[in-house]
Design goal:
The chain is mainly alpha-helical and about 50 residues long. Helix content is about 70%, strand content about 0%. It is globular, with a radius of gyration of 12 Å. The chain starts with a helix and ends with a helix.
């Protein structure tokens, strides 16, 4: 459960950092460049969690 909460928190942070002014309801409506930035940040977050 703790990993799920940490992952959900990482998603929220990634979205806030990369899409601060966007009101989005569905992932399919997020621009591709923003999706890439979010996914890159999540990859770094997950890699850091796994290494600890």
């Amino acid at each position: 459960m703790k990993q799920y909460v940490e992952f959900a928190h990482s998603i929220c942070l990634a979205m806030q950092n990369n899409c601060p002014t966007i009101e989005w309801r569905f992932w399919k409506f997020v621009r591709e460049d923003m999706k890439k930035a979010v996914m890159d940040q999540l990859l770094v977050s997950v890699t850091n969690v796994e290494s600890n």
